[in-house]
Design goal:
This protein is of the alpha+beta class and 209 residues long. It has helices at 6-47, 186-189; strands at 54-55, 68-77, 82-86, 90-94, 99-107, 113-122, 130-135, 141-143, 148-157, 172-181.
Length: 209
């Protein structure tokens, strides 16, 4: 003889279904949250949204305009015990000309540290037209204690920038990098560096070689 009733059994089954759906939804939301960061990064790199520069598939623009533009170089650190700065604070080139700039990083900590750079340009609308052929921002960089590394950036400004009404008269673009610690090194990077500290560089003087 059954001790339960059909109504109670159906209610329990319904509750189990609701719980399973809620669990699946919650799990899916967590997965989407983790995927959102790399997807957003891919979106920015593909569209130049938020001043994100483009990674060029070809080394040259195909044409060079008889018009110059100045690129200013900016460097910042966020939790990395490094001295990080551009070797040259500004550079003037023709629009469409492929040129190379250099940044320099020195690990001031007494242990190896790995960093990763994020980047953008100002004005933000110039992001899709600032094409980097080679850049240290696409890979993690590891430095031994006291080690100094030259970090080149090969880039050009797309000639199509002059066809954009808001950018046709722009004469200066600022390329800005911020160096962050890679996840596994966060505890190390939060400690005090052994000597000196990083600084932000944003004026237009040459630092020298």
């Amino acid at each position: 003889m059954s001790t339960g009733t059909p109504g109670k059994t159906a209610g329990k089954n319904s509750n189990r279904v609701v719980a399973a759906v809620c669990l699946a939804f919650f799990t899916g939301m967590i997965g989407m949250a983790y995927a959102a960061v790399p997807l957003y990064k891919m979106f920015c790199q593909a569209t130049g949204y938020g001043g994100t520069t483009q990674r060029a598939e070809k080394q040259y623009a195909g044409r060079v305009l008889d018009r110059e533009i100045t690129v200013r170089f900016d460097a910042n650190i966020a939790g990395v015990p490094w001295e990080f700065q551009p070797v040259q604070r500004s550079m003037t080139m023709k629009i469409g000309e492929t040129v190379q700039a250099h940044y320099k990083a020195t690990n001031k900590f007494d242990q190896p540290v790995t960093g990763r750079a994020t980047f953008n340009v100002q004005p933000e609308l110039a992001g899709p037209y600032f094409n980097k052929v080679e850049c240290f921002c696409f890979t993690d960089t590891s430095l031994k204690p006291g080690e100094t590394l030259d970090m080149p950036v090969l880039f050009y400004v797309d000639p199509d920038i002059v066809n954009v009404p808001e950018l046709k008269d722009v004469k200066t673009i600022t390329l800005s990098y911020t160096m962050f610690p890679v996840e596994k090194n966060k505890p190390v990077a939060s400690s005090e560096p052994t000597k000196g500290n990083g600084k932000t560089v944003s004026d237009t003087e040459n630092l020298g070689g």
